[in-house]
Queue: 2 jobs
Job 1
Amino acid sequence: MITARINHSREVRKDMGRRLARIFFCLGFVLTLTVLEYGTSKAAIYVCRDTSGKVNYTNVRNSANCNIFKIKQKRSSRTNGQTSVGRTNRSRYDYDIKRIARRYRIDPPLIKAIIHVESDFNHRAVSSHGAQGLMQLMPATARELRVSNPFNPRENIEGGTRYFRKMLDNFKGDLILSLAAYNAGPGRVARAGGVPQIKETRRYVNKVLKRYRAYKAVM
């Protein structure tokens, strides 16, 4: 009788183990699909040519004349093929970046990429045009965003992220146009009907996208 109970208990445990294994397998499969879907659809950038021959960059494939834009990343000699974005000085603001970016429904690695390109994480940076701080806010823009001290990292990230959220809303979520607007101004992007033919702006968009993909792999 005791032996029968022990055998029954063992069978119950085995059955529970098999059920749990199936549950975890299903959860893992769903998670994998989610990650793949996010990685392919959210991060894809397209180069599109319109009927007049003008080239535009976008994250929305809106015609058959669009091809995926691929950015070549240099391999680091000390990181097994990963870009060297994990340095201590580049992680000091991660907490504020994540907290503020999520509040504005923006992927944190994107804000970090913008900061990297704008100021290389120097919170005291001032450009030749007078842009200030981590996200290089112009004084007039900082006042409009109610940033009292643009050299305060947290205030600057808050103001810059809020401004970039405004660009995303203005350009209906188009990442490329929003980045171009952050660099060149929304008026120029609107007048050009796409990324303006400004070398600095096109280089800027390219650099941010490159950093975004790199930080996305490590944040």
Job 2
Amino acid sequence: MINRLIPINDSHTKAVDDARDQLWSIYHDLKAYKLNPVTEQYQAALSNPMQYQNLLRNA
């Protein structure tokens, strides 16, 4: 999904990079949650807002 986006300016490029970082962070957080389930960790991992409109539509 993220690899298909074509940023048209520096702001979009940063948003794509940030979203990719967020996805990896969520992935690692969910792996940690699987080992030690704490509801607050799960909710915090999924509460990050995205800025680039195509990311929002495709998320």
